[in-house]
Design brief:
Helices cover about 75% and strands about 10% of the residues. The protein is mostly helical and about 160 residues long. The chain has a single domain, classed as Arc Repressor Mutant, subunit A (Orthogonal Bundle). Helix 3 crosses helix 4. The relative contact order is 0.07.
Amino acid sequence: MSHEPDRAAAIAHLMRAGRETSRLSTVFRYAVAERLGLTVSDLECLDHLADVGSATAGQIAERTNLTTGAVTSMLRRLQQAGYVTAERDPADRRRVIVTPRPERIAEIERPYERFAERARRLIEGYRVEEVRLLVRHYDRMQAMYLAELDHLRADDTAQRSA
């Protein structure tokens, strides 16, 4: 007896679950951003800075998939609101290094605390092999997203040149 129908059904279920998780993640991010008086792009920028510590405006543009002009406006807004500092790079005066203000990052993390605790408890229920599988899956999904973003950027560039 073949298990192919079971496999196809399981894959379809996984794909639906992934789409729904992505959708709910987006809805959640919008709700958190609204609660903080920020845009989702602002939140993505601040999340990235919380992870890396500091970044150039160009790195932020790449990470958020925004134009450099949009990033400049966003950084000005975040700087005026006290979320980040922006300093000229002493090694290259054309570049701006953006750094989050730690006390404000803690404020941004607050709406995620309950979710993060629930996620931690959920993951504790998995065997180490299951956690490793999930890490591989997320790593591969991230690579796919990055490749698709590159593809979209290349298409946009080609369309502007035509």
